[in-house]
Design brief:
Elements: E1 3-6, E2 12-13, E3 18-25, E4 28-34, E5 36-38, E6 51-53, E7 56-61, E8 64-70, E9 73-76, E10 82-86, E11 89-90, H1 96-102, E12 109-116, E13 119-125, E14 131-137, E15 140-145
Antiparallel strand pairs: 1-15, 2-5, 3-4, 4-7, 5-6, 7-15, 8-11, 8-14, 9-10, 12-13, 13-14
Length: 151
């Protein structure tokens, strides 16, 4: 990877970044993302304008999945009458790998990425038309990518 930053997650725009791969490698939880916005404040951005990157590896050191939740939703009819309601469902740890791999379908994208303390909270719009919240604990983060692209 040509460019690399550490603990600069807030200098990237992850909304609408597509997930191409998720892996655990050498103590890191790694998400490979396409269509990531690189903000002007990023230490590697010499153009001082919003840029874009594909194939960006977002690495969380000592990354451990704390929780994975399929968010609930409501179904209404054309008159606005509530027809069905589904509550949030916590995905059991035994199914985490299967669900995480399903996000690598080319249709799943990030809605948001936030951090509170040592917990990274990632909202994912999955290809199955459901929304998930993934919480990962980690000690630090790295971002690595090959080149800048114009927006």
């Amino acid at each position: 990877m040509k460019y690399s930053t550490g603990n600069e997650w807030e200098h990237f725009g992850f909304a609408e970044a597509y997930i191409s791969d998720i892996q655990k490698i050498n103590g890191y939880f790694v998400m490979t993302l396409d269509n990531v916005t690189i903000e002007p404040e990023n230490s590697q951005n010499r153009d001082i304008r919003q840029m874009r990157a594909n194939g960006l590896d977002f690495k969380i050191q000592d990354g451990q999945v704390k929780s994975l939740t399929e968010e609930g939703y409501r179904v209404y009819n054309a008159d606005g009458k509530l027809m069905e309601q589904y509550e949030d469902q916590i995905i059991p740890a035994s199914q985490h790998n299967e669900v995480l791999k399903s996000f690598c379908d080319g249709d799943s994208c990030l809605y948001s990425l936030k951090k509170e303390g040592d917990i990274y909270m990632i909202e994912i719009d999955a290809g199955n038309e459901r929304t998930y919240e993934l919480q990962i604990s980690g000690t630090s983060d790295r971002q690595e990518w090959d080149r800048f692209l114009n927006l």
